[in-house]
Design brief:
The complex is a heterodimer of chains A (about 400) and B (about 250).
Chain A lengths: L1 H10 L1 H20 L10 H26 L7 H29 L8 H13 L17 H25 L4 H20 L11 E2 L12 H27 L2 H11 L1 H6 L4 H27 L1 E2 L6 H14 L5 H18 L6 E3 L2 E3 L1 H19 L3 H14 L1
Antiparallel strand pairs in A: 1-2, 3-4
Chain B lengths: L3 E12 L2 E12 L3 E5 L6 H8 L7 E6 L4 E2 L5 H7 L1 E4 L11 H8 L6 H5 L5 H13 L15 H14 L4 E5 L7 H14 L4 E5 L3 H7 L2 E6 L2 E6 L1 H6 L1 H8 L2
Parallel strand pairs in B: 3-8, 3-9, 6-7, 7-8
Antiparallel strand pairs in B: 1-2, 1-4, 4-5, 9-10
The chains are: A mainly alpha (about 400), B alpha/beta (about 250).
């Protein structure tokens, strides 16, 4: 067993470098945290860092499906959001149940299970004018089942959608439009009050982990940062194992010349479906770790624009090199929260008042155009050039 | 008739009213080398598209192998796995990948995603790739990005990939296009060697190249067979001279 692993690591030093940097980063965060360290990193900053790691993970998924397999999916945030909804259902249901039960425990008569159910229903769905717990919440009491659904629901959606699209040989920009339509349709559906997922209110209070009320948020945020880092590390290794093997050769072949791969005897549709579903699941897991840190999820999160940002991250970071996606997602999402968070003072330029919350999008757009024109391989491409210079 | 490896019966196909293939019948035996010639628009490439499953004919049959399997309802990848290899007009190799990786993908191994996902490099595959690289004269370029190869080398790599597939029938579309004299000779040798163990159909414009192949020739014109026989035989055919050579 030692043989192939050592070989793989020898051939791909970037895996060890990445895991090393990621570990160093988490240790740094832990030391800086308010929970266990000297406290110069605030709890909300820890959450931002953890969420950024989740963005890096979905960016890896995007790089696999787009950068390596050539499928420009503009719908992967749908899977991210669904993963978040699936875990959010358990978080919200269980916590509401605990609160309801403890408040009813003081009543003169012990509450019946039906009364408890009704109280939970009113608590959660009162906001959309209901008291019934919808059928899709049937398993919300069970963490293992909801965790399984984190993988199964987005995986199944990707499977059905991908099967239909790839089988009809929808490719290129048409496929991109279809994926946009998918995420838009899902968002619009979830916006409805009778969707069973609280309409535009979404699910909230997700930062409160049921049964862990005694653990302060500063600790929980750090645990989630560690979980995010672990998932990202695992995602990186899995992605590398795929692309640095024969599977990588085949999917890159599909990206560059689909017909040729077909004439070599490979069933292209199956390969695309495999990558599409796998990356959907990666996105879903990223979402399931992200939303407990964000605290709230609502349908706006899966609006088409989110998935377009995802493509921008990967393009800026550099397609087809995995670590490029991580760089792009980390850099752009951190800059985005910096510019939109009000930390940067607005500037008066003559008659124009540059308000960064608005102008950040302009800046992002300009840099996207600049990267496309002058550095089509993104930041990762610049790193390649430095490497080439050295070996010369 | 049962000896034919591939038999095409009475196929027709039209695109927007233009009959690209018109009641074409054609058959090739196991291990035969055959050249197909004909002017532009004679239906040579469309013929290959039909055999490999890219285009569906409006009528006719395509029968394969001793079990007389119809190829018409099959997908491109299935036809390829049955043993039909195809080389395109333009060299189509995976330019971003090395010569080694190109050959590895083409090697006659299991094509299912799971066996590909868990593929482990092994000695016997490496040896087969080395032997193939030797055959196509690229043994010193295995680690080279195939996009950096010369035009001729790309053509050979593609032929090497076809050989790696271990097909029973090789369809080769204009292999000599854009090649130097020297490269042409090497290509002729390569194809003749390939034909020793499998059937090879070469579509070619270049008469000199066809002469060197020294094999049976089928002349296509307006989507059907105009003449068939040795090169001498068909070049003496008055119809052939009229539509093709005489121009």
């Amino acid at each position: 067993m030692q043989g192939p692993l050592t070989q793989f690591l020898m051939k791909n030093p970037s895996v060890l470098i990445f895991l090393g940097l990621l570990s160093a980063f988490t240790i740094f965060a832990a030391i800086g945290s308010e929970a266990f360290g000297i406290g110069f990193i605030s709890t909300s900053m820890i959450k931002t860092l953890g969420k950024t790691l989740c963005f890096c993970l979905i960016a890896i998924a995007m790089d696999l499906v787009w950068g390596y397999c050539g499928i420009l999916s503009l719908g992967h945030f749908a899977f991210f959001g669904l993963g978040g909804y699936m875990i959010g259902m358990w978080l919200m249901y269980e916590r509401t149940r605990l609160i309801v039960e403890s408040s009813m425990a003081n009543a003169a008569l012990p509450p019946t299970p039906q009364e408890i159910q009704e109280a939970i229903g009113t608590q959660i769905f009162g906001v959309v004018g209901g008291a019934e717990i919808p059928a899709i919440w049937a398993f919300a009491h069970s963490l293992p089942i909801q965790l399984a659904l984190v993988v199964l629901v987005p995986g199944l959606l990707a499977l059905v959608f991908g099967w239909l699209a790839f089988r009809s040989r929808v490719t290129g920009v048409y496929l991109s439009i279809l994926t946009q339509a998918m995420t838009l349709a899902l968002a619009l559906y979830l916006f409805q009050n009778d969707s069973g997922l609280r309409g535009n209110n979404g699910l909230s209070g997700l930062q409160n982990i049921p049964g862990l009320d005694h653990v302060p948020q500063s600790h929980i945020s750090l645990y989630f940062l560690l979980a995010s880092a672990f998932a990202l590390g695992l995602g990186f290794v899995i992605a590398k194992l795929i692309v640095e093997n024969k599977m990588g050769n085949v999917i890159k072949g599909i990206r560059d010349n689909e017909a040729r791969v077909r004439f070599l005897g490979y069933h292209v549709e199956t390969y695309k479906l495999f990558i599409f579903v796998l990356t959907a699941i990666m996105a879903a897991i990223a979402g399931a770790i992200y939303y407990p840190q964000a605290g709230i999820i609502n349908p706006a999160e899966i609006a088409p624009i989110a998935s377009i940002y995802l493509a921008v991250w990967v393009a800026i970071g550099g397609r087809g090199r995995i670590y490029g996606a991580v760089i792009g997602a980390a850099l752009v999402s951190m800059l985005s929260s910096l510019f939109t968070g009000g930390q940067i003072p607005n500037i008066e330029v003559g008659p124009v008042n540059v308000v960064w919350v608005d102008w950040w999008l302009v800046l992002l757009g300009v840099s996207f155009v600049a990267v496309t024109l002058y550095a089509p391989k993104g930041i990762g491409g610049l790193i390649d050039m430095i490497k080439m210079e050295r070996t010369k | 008739m049962n000896e034919a490896l591939l038999e095409v019966r009475n196929i027709s196909v039209s695109f927007d009213g233009f009959k690209a293939i018109n009641a074409l019948s054609f058959s090739i035996a196991e291990g035969e080398l055959r050249a197909i010639i004909g002017p532009n628009g004679a239906g040579k490439t469309t013929f290959m598209d039909i055999v490999t499953g890219k285009t569906r004919p409006d009528a006719g049959e395509v029968i394969w192998g001793e079990k007389n399997v119809s190829l018409l309802k099959r997908q491109e990848s299935q036809i390829a796995r049955l043993g039909v290899g195809r080389k395109f007009q333009k060299p189509t190799v995976f330019e971003e990948q090395s010569v080694y990786e190109n050959l590895l993908m083409a090697l006659d191994n299991d094509r299912s995603p799971f066996s590909v996902l868990f593929y482990r490099h092994n000695e016997s595959d490496d040896q087969r790739i080395a032997a193939l690289a030797e055959e196509i004269g690229l043994q010193d370029h295995l680690e080279k990005r195939s996009g950096d190869l010369s035009h001729g080398q790309k053509q050979w790599l593609e032929i090497g990939m076809l050989l790696a597939q271990e097909p029973r029938l090789l369809l080769v579309d204009e292999p000599a296009a854009g090649m130097t004299q020297e490269e042409r000779q090497k290509t002729v040798d390569l194809l003749r060697r390939a034909a020793q163990s499998r059937a090879v159909v070469v579509v070619e414009h270049d008469m000199d190249f066809v002469r060197k192949l020294d094999c049976r020739v089928t002349v296509l014109h307006e989507g059907s067979v105009l003449a068939e026989g040795s090169l001498e035989h068909v070049t003496e055919n008055q119809d052939v001279i009229d539509v093709y050579l005489g121009r």
